[in-house]
Design goal:
The complex is a heterodimer of chains A (about 350) and B (about 650). With about 350 residues, chain A is mainly α. Among the domains of chain A are: about 90 residues, no CATH class; about 80 residues, no CATH class. Chain A has 16 helices and 2 strands. Chain A has a two-stranded antiparallel sheet. Chain A is elongated and about 105 Å long. Chain B is built from 1 helix and 31 strands. The longest helix of chain B is centred in the first third of the chain and has 27 residues. By secondary structure, chain B is mainly beta. Classes of the chains: A mainly alpha (about 350), B mainly beta (about 650). The interface between A and B is large, with 146 and 212 residues.
């Protein structure tokens, strides 16, 4: 095992040592294996138009618009200014060249109309019709900048179920509305439930994680950008996701519950359940599905008493208290999770 | 000693970040920049009156007692600095904060802090008399149980000037502090003592992640190192007197150990440009876990490959491969150390395995308004050295086929249909079906701009033959019997803007799960063979209906009224036919009603007064133990700035 780690670290060290030697400038550009020509054409914009710069766009046409305020407060708006020190992004980076849109408009005309209480509309139809682009093209609008800047939260995006199901960046990120485009944990719940309404309903069940109380959020367990495992889990698998908050269940234990505990979903339904604590079935049925029940009669053939039956068949975990794994043997010397 | 180790690591990491934090902004400092944006947002101060005399399950996540409450939402961009702060304080155990700071694109910091009280049930044995061979003992019958949960996630990212090279540090601390009910068994058959006592816990888990990533032309690469530690604090081992049993002498032995654990992980990620028609991503990860009580160790290798190819705008092909290799390393012989005796027991080795998962998916858009998706997944698991695990097969293969169609025949209607078939060869556990079929239908219809209807229905049917049970008396594997399951889940909602000032939304969720399974119960038979009693087709069912109605009304620009009521009915039965009254031990019948109403009135000079009332009523029809009511009234004064 240590040999594998040594090899891994050697490769890493080599890569990190070699790339500065190659020269930063030659590395800066994004180098796709093969371009997506059709989608790239869609986001080029009007070939007859020229770039006019932001001052002729928002500052002129939209200066009385609410949009300006939103945009100014956003990361994109911040990036319009050289002072921000961030890579410059302006309106035309996403909307395409805007000369045709403002043809015939002057700041004086805008001012004059504004004094008369009139809005001066630009010919926005000459810009890229972002809203009606196919989802992969919409995402490409964002990815063309977020590809060459080591945005590793998108590492598993392209083959993830959101991308496959034509969910685009636009569906969750409102470029003009948020200061840093991040969806806050609180806002993420409302956003996710726009599409995943049945998941929201599960949180209304009696046993639930405190999502409706505002103390756990969809993004605590899920990464909408995709992940190593299915269901866009934030961690590499179900167990690793759960033990973020339930570290006492991590193990490894001397007496493991076979490989059942490798997947918490074998017994739990994380969004909500009618059975506490988030169990997929009530005890004792939960356990009886896989395990033979205790003796229901005595050696002489007579049935055990109702009192004994109640003791054996109410809650298995009353006695099998270390059901997630144990480090001490039961009285019999075996790993029965009772001690 | 271990805490020192972690502290030393944290200290080193902290110094490293501090040095980088000083160095990088200095490197990017080209000019003195003016602050040109003011903070915007709001803050509020208020009081929460909580009536929690007899709350039971209704106050599961409610810290008792009335309290001052306050909060702030703000963002400011005095360039090149950017700040945000969203914070809410409900009481001393219930709070939330999301704070962030960024300097140009060189430094990004974020901290997410959450605290909540989780009230736990005090399970009463509630038994009308104990059989002679058994006794019940609740050592703390009047105690209330709860856990105060707190989590802090700290994230710091530094970027090199003028080049996408990042280093990052992440630290997550999770604390659980409180009193829990520890139920355990003393003795063994013929001399059982079911015992309950209060266990004070003070668990702390820390995870530190340190990494770097960069754009390297054709590929981007990230490396991260992670160290996790779980410290159960004092009281991680309980000791009690056990009677003699199975040849083990009477003595004081340890039980219900919560072990200290730690782990380290190294992860390497690499991907090609996201903008390509062909995009590849690969992950390789090594995780080492250790249990410091028993010395058990686990070594895990994980690998992932993603591949996407868009040969044409109407066609997308997706391939995924996942691999996990888990190797357990544990002792063959265990020494159980009692107060007066030391006993040695052989240990059955845990289950190590190799797991591989391949999936292929294709997306086809024959029409602009129609998308077809199909996917096939093959997963295989090879368990190592499972001879001692009588029930477990060495390998299990799973095939999953999924067909999906989504269409938007016209702008106001969106439809999605999905069918999934799953086949499992040699399933390991009885809950795993050999075959399952799932159908899902989903529709969103907006016939009028002010009316939206939504419906989602999922039907799942599962079949299993040849269940596996280990017979208690002879330890012989029994194969046979069957299990059929059916699950229905329906969610429907209707949202209507009754006027420009009022919106009303109603929704209903119905879920039902029915299973019929042949269950095995140990029994003594006259011949002494100990063949089990099989309860054929033993039925189990769960059912829930949840209704909600929400209303928002803005009678004037300065007044907003919102209200919501959610009523959930839960029921369930388990009715085995063993001749014993087992059914009465597993009945579920409960209702919960949530009601909230909130009024907000804007005042002059950007002030706002808010009043919110919330109630939760829980009624357990099958036993009154968890019944209760909670009422919370909050008055707030908010100022926008």
């Amino acid at each position: 095992m240590s040999f594998r780690i040594s090899v891994l670290l050697s490769i890493l060290t080599s890569v990190f040592c070699l790339f500065p030697a190659a020269g930063c400038n030659s590395l800066k550009g994004s180098k796709p294996i093969a371009p997506i020509r059709e989608y790239e054409k869609m986001i080029v914009g009007n070939l007859e138009a020229d770039y006019v710069g932001t001052r002729n766009c928002l500052a002129a046409c939209h200066e009385h618009d609410r949009l300006r305020q939103y945009f100014d407060a956003s990361t994109m708006g911040v990036q319009l200014r050289k002072e921000s020190g961030m890579p410059l992004v302006d309106c035309e980076s996403c909307h395409g060249p805007g000369s045709l849109a403002i043809q015939g408009l002057t700041p004086e005309l805008v001012e004059q109309n504004a004094r008369l209480g009139m809005k001066t509309a630009c010919d926005f139809k000459t810009l890229i019709d972002l809203k009606n682009l196919p989802a992969p093209a919409q995402s490409l609008t964002c990815l063309k900048c977020h590809s060459a800047n080591a945005t590793f939260n998108l590492h598993n995006w392209n083959a993830g179920s959101h991308a496959m199901n034509e969910v685009s960046c636009f569906d969750c990120h409102d470029v003009h509305a948020s200061p840093d485009l991040k969806v806050t944990p609180k806002a993420s719940d409302r956003l996710c439930f726009t599409c995943h309404q049945s998941a929201q309903a599960e949180f209304a069940l009696v046993s639930h994680h405190p999502l409706r109380e505002g103390r756990i959020f969809c993004v605590d367990c899920h990464d909408p950008h995709g992940g190593f495992s299915g269901s866009h889990l934030k961690m590499d698998d179900v167990k690793e996701t759960c033990i973020q908050c339930h570290p006492d269940k991590r193990g490894p234990f001397l007496y493991g519950h076979a490989d059942v505990v490798e997947d918490c979903l074998n017994c739990h339904t994380p969004h909500g359940s009618i059975n506490s604590p988030l169990l997929s079935a009530r005890e004792p049925f939960l356990c009886l599905q896989c395990h033979q029940g205790h003796f229901i009669n005595r050696p002489d053939g007579t049935p055990i008493s109702p009192a004994s039956a109640r003791a054996m068949y109410t809650r298995c975990s009353d006695c099998h208290s270390r059901i997630h794994g144990s480090d001490t043997p039961s009285a019999s010397g075996q790993g029965r999770f009772t001690q | 000693m271990r805490s020192c180790t972690l502290s030393a690591r944290l200290l080193k990491v902290g110094w490293l970040c501090l040095l980088l934090g000083v160095a990088l902004p200095a490197a990017g400092r080209a000019e003195k920049l003016p602050a040109d944006a003011t903070a915007e947002g709001s803050f509020y101060l208020g009081y929460r009156w909580v009536v929690d005399d007899d709350t039971g399950k209704a106050a599961e996540f409610q810290y008792p007692g009335s309290s001052l409450t306050l909060g702030i939402d703000t963002l400011a961009c005095p360039l090149p600095h950017r700040y945000h702060l969203h914070a809410e304080y409900r009481n001393e155990k219930d709070w939330y904060m999301d704070a962030g700071y960024a300097y140009k694109d060189l430094l990004m910091f974020r901290d997410l802090l959450v605290g909540v009280r989780h009230n736990l049930d005090h399970y009463d044995y509630l038994l009308p008399g104990a059989p002679p061979s058994l006794s019940y003992n609740d050592r703390n019958p009047d105690d209330d149980y709860f856990v105060d949960f707190a989590s802090n996630l700290f994230f710091l990212r530094l970027k090199a000037p003028d080049f996408p090279l990042h280093t990052f540090l992440k630290h997550r601390r999770v604390q659980r502090d409180g009193d829990i009910q520890q139920r355990f068994l003393l003795g063994s058959f013929g001399n059982l003592s079911m015992t309950s006592e209060t266990r004070a816990i003070d668990w702390v888990a820390d995870t530190v992640t340190l990494g770097a990533n960069s754009h390297l032309g054709p590929v981007e690469m990230e490396y991260q190192y992670e160290y996790s530690e779980f410290d159960p604090g004092g009281g991680s081992v309980l000791d009690d007197s056990y009677p003699a049993a199975f040849g083990r002498p009477a003595d004081i032995y340890p039980h219900d150990v919560v072990p200290e654990t730690e782990s380290t992980a190294n992860t390497l990620k690499m991907h090609t440009s996201y903008t390509g028609g062909v995009v590849g991503a690969a992950t390789l990860s090594n995780l080492e876990e250790k249990n410091n009580y028993s010395g058990t160790e686990a070594g895990i290798w994980k690998g992932a490959v993603d591949f996407r190819w868009l040969p044409d705008p109407v066609i997308g092909l997706f391939f995924k491969y996942r691999h996990k290799d888990l190797d357990l390393d544990q002792t063959d012989m265990l020494r159980l150390i009692g107060a007066a005796n030391i006993l040695t027991y052989p240990v059955r080795q845990g289950v190590s395995y190799d797991k591989d998962q391949f999936s292929l998916a294709a997306r086809y858009k024959p029409l602009k308004r129609l998308t077809l998706l199909s996917s096939y997944e093959f997963a295989t698991i090879e368990r190592k050295d499972v001879d001692d695990w009588e029930v477990l097969p060495e390998g299990t293969d799973t095939h999953t086929l999924n067909l999906t169609a989504q269409t938007r025949p016209f702008a106001s209607l969106k439809l999605k249909g999905q069918y999934e078939y799953k086949s499992v060869d040699d399933p390991a556990y009885n809950t795993e079906p050999e075959q399952s079929n799932q159908l899902r239908l989903n529709a969103t219809y907006t016939p009028l701009p002010w009316l939206t209807a939504f419906v989602d229905y999922v039907l799942t049917e599962t079949e299993r033959e040849d269940l596996r049970y280990l017979n208690a008396l002879s330890r012989v594997l029994l194969e046979g019997g069957g299990r059929d399951g059916r699950s229905d889940r329906l969610t429907a909602s209707l949202s209507c803007s009754v006027s420009e000032k009022a919106t009303i939304t109603g929704s209903w969720t119905y879920s039902r799960w029915d299973v019929e399974q042949d269950l095995s119960f140990a029994q003594w038979s006259g011949t002494g063979t100990g063949l089990p009693f099989i309860d054929f087709g033993s039925p189990y069912s769960d059912q829930a209906n949840s209704f909600s109605l929400s209303f928002q009304y803005v009678p004037r620009e300065d007044i907003t009224l919102t209200s919501e009521v959610v009523h959930t009915l839960s029921s369930g039965e388990f009715t085995p036919d063993t001749g014993l009254p087992l059914a009465s031990f597993s009945t579920m019948d409960a209702t919960e009603t949530l009601f909230s109403v909130e009024l907000a009135k804007k005042m002059p000079r950007n002030w706002e007064v808010g009043l919110r009332f919330y109630s939760d009523t829980y009624d357990d029809e099958s036993g009154a133990v968890l019944d209760g009511e909670l009422f919370v009234t909050t008055l707030t004064l908010k100022r926008y700035f």
